[in-house]
Amino acid sequence: MTDEVKPSGPKRSYHAPRRMARAAATRRAVLLASRELFVSNGYVATTIADIAERAQVSPDTIYATVGRKPALLRELVEVAISGTDQPVPAQQRDYVQRIGAADRAIDKLAIYAQAIAAIQQRMAPVFLALRDAAGTDTDCAHLWSEIGRRRAANMRLLAAELRATGDLRNDLSDGQVADIIWSMNGSEYWDLLVRERGWTPDQFAHWLADAWIRILLDRN
C-alpha cells in the first residue's frame, strides 16, 4: 500500500502554440496602436496609457510585451524595414540576398529601388515621426543617430558590392556612391515625391532606379 495521491482526472495539456499565438496577436495589436498614435498624434504627445487603450490591453502588458516608448518606436522602425512581425537582420532579408545574387550593377540597383519603394510605404510615416521626436526626446535622438549611422554603413557595403561589378563610374569614390544612395533612399525623399507630389510607389521605384543608373554607372 502507498501513500501517493494519484490525480483524479486527466492531466491538463500545456498549449504552448496557442499561448504563443495569443502573445503574437497581443504584440501586433500593441505595435499597430503605437504606430497609429505616433504617426497621428506625435511621439511626445502619445502616452503608454493611450496606446494601451487603443490596443485594449493594460499598460503592464505593453511593458512586458515590447517595453517603454523608445522600445516601441525602435520596434516599429525595425518591423517596417523587414515587412514582417519581427525584425530581420539585414543579410537575411530577401531583397538583400537578391542584390547579392545579381551580377550586374544595373540589376542590383533596380532590385534595391523596388525594395525601397515597398519599405517606405511602411516606414516613412514612422521614420518621420522619429525624426520629429528626436528634436525634443533624448532617447529618440539617440535612435535617430544610430539608425542614420547604420544606414550609412550599409550603403558603404552596397557601394563596395557595386564597385566589384566593374560598372561604377571611376570618378566617384565609394564614399560618394554610398552618400548618393543614402540621400535618395531616405524617407524624406519618398515623402516629398509620393506624399507631397502625388507620385505612385511604382513611379518612385522606376525613377529611383533610373536616377541611380544614370548618376552612378559608367555607361560608355
TrEMBL record:
<feature type="domain" description="HTH tetR-type">
    <location>
        <begin position="24"/>
        <end position="84"/>
    </location>
</feature>
<dbReference type="InterPro" id="IPR036271">
    <property type="entry name" value="Tet_transcr_reg_TetR-rel_C_sf"/>
</dbReference>
<protein>
    <submittedName>
        <fullName>DNA-binding transcriptional regulator, AcrR family</fullName>
    </submittedName>
</protein>
<feature type="DNA-binding region" description="H-T-H motif">
    <location>
        <begin position="47"/>
        <end position="66"/>
    </location>
</feature>
<dbReference type="InterPro" id="IPR009057">
    <property type="entry name" value="Homeodomain-like_sf"/>
</dbReference>
<dbReference type="InterPro" id="IPR001647">
    <property type="entry name" value="HTH_TetR"/>
</dbReference>
<keyword id="KW-0238">DNA-binding</keyword>
<dbReference type="InterPro" id="IPR050109">
    <property type="entry name" value="HTH-type_TetR-like_transc_reg"/>
</dbReference>
<dbReference type="GO" id="GO:0003700">
    <property type="term" value="F:DNA-binding transcription factor activity"/>
</dbReference>
<dbReference type="GO" id="GO:0000976">
    <property type="term" value="F:transcription cis-regulatory region binding"/>
</dbReference>
<keyword id="KW-0805">Transcription regulation</keyword>
<dbReference type="Pfam" id="PF00440">
    <property type="entry name" value="TetR_N"/>
</dbReference>
<keyword id="KW-0804">Transcription</keyword>
